[in-house]
Design goal:
Layout: H1 2-17, H2 21-34, H3 37-48, E1 51-52, H4 53-60, H5 64-76, E2 80-85, E3 88-93, H6 96-109
Antiparallel strand pairs: 1-3, 2-3
Length: 111
């Protein structure tokens, strides 16, 4: 009976340590962004260097329109950012966290 009491106390402690539901929802949505192979390829390209839409499209054998659509989604998730250079926009990963997520993911799947 004492073991059961300790288990219940332990699960209560764990429950209190969990992120709140809104944070869990945002985290799940973040991982959804990486769940799409096209978006992951685009992020991988931008992990190598900053690129224009047309460069990404050419590299991945995609249309500019398809790449632009995915970049809008990635921008909305704060994974990429764009810097206007004349008439074009050069895209890059939003911050070092995105690089680390990609690196950790690749390390995990390659083990």
């Amino acid at each position: 009976m004492e073991d059961l009491k300790q288990d219940i106390q332990s699960t209560d402690k764990i429950r209190k340590m969990l992120p709140d539901d809104d944070t869990i929802y945002e985290l799940a949505n973040l991982f959804k962004m990486f769940g799409d192979p096209t978006r992951t390829k685009i992020l991988s390209c931008l992990g190598i260097r900053d690129m224009y839409v047309c460069e990404i499209a050419e590299t991945l054998n995609m249309t500019v329109s398809a790449v632009s659509h995915q970049l809008r989604v990635l921008r909305g998730a704060k994974l990429v950012k764009g810097l206007k250079e004349g008439k074009e926009v050069k895209y890059s990963l939003d911050d070092d966290h995105v690089t680390k997520i990609l690196e950790y993911g690749l390390t995990h799947v390659n083990e």
